[in-house]
Amino acid sequence: LWFGLFPYPSHTIKHIALWILSVMEECGLSPEMISTVTPDGAGDVKGAVELLPALKDKLITCYGHGIQRGWVHAAGMEGRPSQNPQMRNTLLVSGRLAQLHAQSKHFRLVLAEVQAAAGVPRPLKLYRANATRWTGRQENVRRNNLLWKHIAAALIKFRQVRRDASETDAYKFYRKDELEDNQTSEVPLKHM
Question: Which residues contact 33 (CB under 8 A, 6 or more apart)?
C-alpha cells in the first residue's frame, strides 16, 4: 500500500499520467507486474490511464463507483433529466432534511424532544449522506424512513415555533395537512 501527495497543481490527464509513472518507478513496478488499474471512473483518471499504452488495456472502472454513477444519472442528480422522478424527490427531501438537522440546533432539539416524548430511549439523529457514495444516500433515506413520524411531528412543531419558513427548504416540500397525515401513516414518505 502506498500513499503520497499529488505533486501537480491541477488534476489534468497529463499530470495524472506523469504521477502514475512516477509512483510506478518509485515502487519499482513495471507494467507487466500490474494486472488491473481500477480508478474511480473520473474522466481525468481514466484518460490518464488510457494515455499510457502499457496500462490502457488493463483499465477496469471500480464497480462500486459505477453503481454510484448509475443511480446519480437515473435520478437526474447531475443536471440530466431524471429517469425516476420519485427517487429524485425522495433523495432531495432526505438530503434537505439532513441538511436542516445539521444546520439548525433548534430543529435538532425539537426532533430529540419529539422522540423522547414518544418514548424513544436514545433519540436518533438524521444521517447526512456523503454525496459521492450510494451507501450514504441509502442510509440517509433509511434513517429518515425509520424516523418519519418523528420528523413530521418535529417539522410541524419547528414551523409553529419558528414561523419563518426561510430557515428550512425541507419544510417547503410539504403542506401542513400532508405532514399531519403522515404523523399517523405507516407508510413513510407516502406522498412521494
Answer: none
pLDDT of 33 reads 92
Cα of first residue to Cα of last residue in the chain, in angstroms, is: 45
Cβ atoms of residues 107 and 126 within 8 Å: no
Using DSSP, how many helices (H) and how many strands (E) does the chain show? 8, 0
Question: Which class for 165: exposed (0-12), middle (13-18), buried (19 or more C-beta within 10 A)?
Answer: exposed
Q: For residues 82-90, give the mean pLDDT.
A: 84
10 Å Cβ neighbour count for 57? 10
State the sign of the Cα–Cα–Cα–Cα dihedral 36, 41, 46, 48: negative
Residue 84: what are its φ and ψ, rounded to 5°?
-145, 85
| Residue 13 pLDDT exceeds 80 | yes
Q: Is the dihedral of CA 97, 187, 181, 76 positive or negative?
A: positive
Cα–Cα dist 162/185, whole Å: 25
